[in-house]
Amino acid sequence: xxxxxxxxxxxxxxxxxxxxxxxxxxxxxxxxxxxxxxxxxxxxxxxxxxxxxxxxxxxxxxxxxxxxxxxxxxxxxxxxxxxxxxxxxxxxxxxxxxxxxxxxxxxxxxxxxxxxxxxxxxxxxxxxxxxxxxxxxxxxxxxxxxxxxxxxxxxxxxxxxxxxxxxxxxxxxxxxxxxxxxxxxxxxxxxxxxxxxxxxxxxxxxxxxxxxxxxxxxxxxxxxxxxxxxxxxxxxxxxxxxxxxxxxxxxxxxxxxxxxxxxxxxxxxxxxxxxxxxxxxxxxxxxxxxxxxxxxxxxxxxxx
Length: 304
What we know:
Blueprint: H1 2-18, E1 45-53, E2 57-64, H2 68-80, E3 84-88, E4 99-103, H3 108-111, E5 116-120, E6 124-128, H4 131-145, E7 150-158, E8 166-170, H5 178-190, E9 195-199, H6 218-230, E10 234-237, H7 246-249, E11 256-258, E12 264-269, H8 274-291, H9 293-296
Parallel strand pairs: 2-3, 2-4, 4-6, 8-9, 9-10
Antiparallel strand pairs: 1-7, 5-6, 5-7, 11-12
Helix pairs in contact: 2-4, 5-6
């Protein structure tokens, strides 16, 4: 019995020495401040003390290097904030209650093309290397201030974990409206999704016979391109091939793949025929000229 008491005393002494915080009550420990509830969640947050309150007549101050996209984004951002907000593009000194959007290309090494630093104190400051980083920071600020114009003070460095964060839409059989796509892109931007894979058929001048089912006129496609640029989204347009091509081949039985009995399969392109490949590349080339992949992103023909 005495041995057991000795062992118990030794264990208790070791616990007290190795785990000193356990001697205090859990109720006495300071509670850690919860990070702001935003989507996606901030990758790092250091809480401060108190709150920032957006004034009724807020001021957005553009600071540092900036391009036309940053200025345009700032003007839209002003319209999205509660109350009345103006944009200062001069050298006005930031003051309490301001939202400062700062673009510093020298930070690209640490923040990348889409990351930003957020500081919430007497004023709110978003710092990024690029216009996209500044834009994403403004999306977080909107969420912080959305309910009542108040936000907990603190700081964050938020850099996306993944290069591609996207949504896919197949609109090859039906015409999904342009307003629907704009709502989608706005929601994507709010959640910092940067890539929209989109299967949309362009109304062809090369092959007018393919203008059936769901197609988009060239002006509609250019509108989609402009919307993607507005919301900092990379478009990845697609034409299915060699399967699922019934949206093009319905009126081209001569290009449809035939089985051993000579029965054609309307969705399948017969890639063994040189004229079939010529037809397909002509559709891709025409579509590329409208999508303008320099501003859209990658062209993605498929092998379904």
